[in-house]
Specification:
Belongs to the CvfB family. By secondary structure, this protein is of the alpha+beta class. It is built from five helices and 18 strands.
């Protein structure tokens, strides 16, 4: 069976039954359809639609289970295994799990997908004719971009991360909207394949959206203040941070902007929980002891 057919859905005739399954033919070539890959309604001398793939031994097989993805179409597939120095395996709906090569994943493994995450992929053949899953490219996303309506502004939205770069994270929603999350609009960098829910903070001219994973200011202030308090308590009630501290050090330590830090610090000072003294922030409780 020619590798040109691997990864494709084609029509073939059922020509004979064997112990292990059915023999299919397209008039020129034959391929085996294992019993476990056949449906109950299969009949000899009938034309059926099958998907062609290779098993672990490199044998070309057919299945009557038609995956949502092939060499021409994209679809969401679930990550079922992560293998260091190799990539991740995804379930496309057939018995064989398909590899997404580490070459198509982010450089840093901390933002690799985890088991249970979902990737938007199509299929491709490598130089040896092996079937691989290929994450969607930015060009393909742009070609099929669904413009977001203005009414979406300030609304919550859920999507899956399909790309991670130094500039930020990119997501796709179920509706087909393309979103961008700037590093300043998140506390932690989401994984590729991770499902996130955020707030639409801008709608661009091309219909794409900017998304924030940070809570609204009032909610965020309370959350940030709790983080600072926990950090203070863990370090004996005194930390070398104040409202004039370096923004990069603040972000590195607390994963928030300097503006957010100052708002949270102001809240704690107003509540009488902390004071600033000699370039430090100090818990008032520790000063009374």
């Amino acid at each position: 069976m020619s590798n040109l057919n691997i990864g494709n859905v084609i029509k073939m005739n059922v020509v004979k039954k064997k112990t292990e399954g059915f023999v299919l033919s397209d008039g020129n070539q034959e391929v085996m359809l294992p019993d476990e890959q056949a449906r109950d309604d299969i009949e000899l001398d009938k034309e059926i639609e099958v998907f062609l793939y290779q098993d672990k031994r490199g044998n070309t097989l057919a299945t009557m289970t038609i995956p949502e993805v092939d060499l021409e179409t994209y679809g969401w597939v679930e990550v079922v295994e992560v293998v260091k120095n190799l990539g991740v395996f995804v379930d496309i709906g057939i018995e064989k799990e398909i590899l997404v090569s580490l070459d198509d994943l982010p450089l840093f493994e901390r933002v690799w997908p985890k088991q249970g995450d979902w990737l938007f992929v199509s299929l491709e053949l490598d130089k040896k004719g092996r079937l691989l899953a290929k994450p969607i490219t930015e060009g393909a996303v742009q070609e099929d971009l669904e413009p977001a309506p203005e009414s979406l502004l300030k609304s919550d939205i859920t999507g899956r991360i399909y790309r991670s770069t130094k500039a930020g994270s990119f997501l796709l929603t179920e509706e087909g909207y393309r979103g961008f999350i700037h590093p300043s609009e998140r506390k932690e960098e989401p994984r590729v394949g991770e499902t996130v829910t955020g707030r639409v903070i801008d709608i661009k001219e091309d219909g794409s959206i900017n998304v924030s994973l940070r809570p609204l200011k009032q909610e965020g202030m309370k959350e940030d203040a709790e983080v600072i308090m926990e950090y203070l308590i863990e370090r004996g009630g005194s930390i070398p941070f104040h409202d004039k501290s370096d923004p990069d050090e603040i972000r590195k330590t607390f994963r928030i902007s300097k503006a957010a830090f100052k708002r949270a610090l102001g809240k704690l000072m107003k509540e009488g929980k902390v004071i600033q003294q000699d370039g430090k922030t100090i818990l008032t409780d520790t000063m009374e002891q």
